[in-house]
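Supplementary Note 3. Input sequence used for the single-chain structure prediction.
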Amino acid sequence: MKPKRTDELTEQEKNNLAPYLSDVDADVFVLSNLNPEVIGAALARYSRAPTGFKETVVREFLNPDGTPNEVKGTELIDRVVNKFGDESVAELAVAPLCIENVSNLMTKIIEDCRIGGSPIEESTRYVLYDVKRNGQWRYVRPTSIMQSGLADQYTRTMDFIFEMYAELVEPMQELFRRKLPDENFKIEVERDGKIVLAGVNELSGDGEQRAHRLAYSFTIRSAACDIIRCILPASTKANLGLMGNGRFYSGLITKLLSQELDEGWVLAKNIRRALETQIPTFIKRAVRSDYLAENQKNMRNLCVGLFKDIPIETAPEVVLLEDRVEDYQLNLLANMVFPHVKHSTAQIRDVIRALPEERRRKIFATAVGERKSKRDRPPRALEYGYPINFDIISGFGEYRDLQRHRMLTQQRQDMNVALGYSVPGEIGEIGKEKAVQECFERAESLHADLMRVGLVREAQYATLFNHYIRWNMGMNARELGHLTELRSQKAGHPKYRRTAQMMARLYLKRHPEMEPLVKFVDRNDYDQGVTRAEQEARTARKSLASGVFDDMD
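The predicted structure, written as discrete structure tokens, is reproduced below.
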């Protein structure tokens, strides 16, 4: 007769568990020193075993000497996830992943995968790109472009833009030093148990002087970065950190293999190679999806054909869309078309409204495609139905910051040059407006040539941060409050602060009774000033309190 399982751990079992649990005797504990696949497998047993995690681990996943039986963990995960299809189990193992030297364009494709992964990326608001690495400026050189006959033009254009960026660094910092002289910059310090602001002549000791110097330097540098990043191209290299679970990574690899940029194909292989050292079983099923690849291509071809002769109408920066229930089907079709054209949602809806029913059905059928299994999932456009929907036009630089919000649905159009660009006023203040204008002109010439030879998706690499991009966002009221209150604060970039303020204003114009929802939106205009000064003043006090100074630069 099989012995009855018991929750009581023997002393030997407790000793075997000790290296892996924060507290063997507690009901709440953290795990360490275990392979993520063993952890995932053991957690999966919660739904199938009558005993708790500790008993499951020590009796099913540890060898008699206390070492992990990783083979058994892998076998269980393979059975539950890859054979039985229990995808929730794929969320039980997580792995940290670092991705370096990918384009800013590729970081957006990665970060579009919203659920199960938490990204953090190198910020163009704080980091300067004025130094070559290994003799080259920091931009990607996609194989498709380098083998297209346009390699020389591509590298000449990018080199020119990065050289100009480097030339702007010191003049722009000097401009902000004049706007905010060192002697006028104050940091928070403690005096007699109170927090006060102290200038350079009121500081006490080496610590406060160091904190002041670092905070001032960072404030000036970030103010300059906010302006001169206007000419950084989408090809600019970035470093990206991810903490994700198995389902997230499996979906990410599949997506990268199924899209059209060769940079993504190479990246998918490198991600798989890295994760196979941690969670190989969780990503075993990640392969190129013919369904995704074909749907993207077919939908793009259909939409290009439908809109190629329709001029792009001028639209405001922010539009709060009118979404009537009776227009649901029409609006859903417009949402399907949106990512594949350059037109506004309102214009797309007008075009679709005028189409015969047969052509409307063609749009729907093409977007959904030929699904062969439940894993062939239709596009994100089908998430349409939020009570609040915006069309937004802004620079790509500002989009990067607003794209990170997750509790909503976003779709963006390809980066392009058709919507124009903006040049910050500070560029003119340092006498570099013509030089910066030339950067945009060269980038647009390269973009046109890439389009001409059929490198439609690759042409995005040539666009600059201040080229306008159009995207839409659907959200509920709670997310609207969160986004607008967070992104309107003084330390934010002036351009995305403006976007957040306009979103709140348009919503309140239609729904004035909802004012408490956006109570803490900062509606002030700080005249493009050095807006990080106050935040860095507080950061300096925290550095003094902890004794940790961020002076790695």
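The chain has a mean pLDDT of 90. The radius of gyration is 27 Å.
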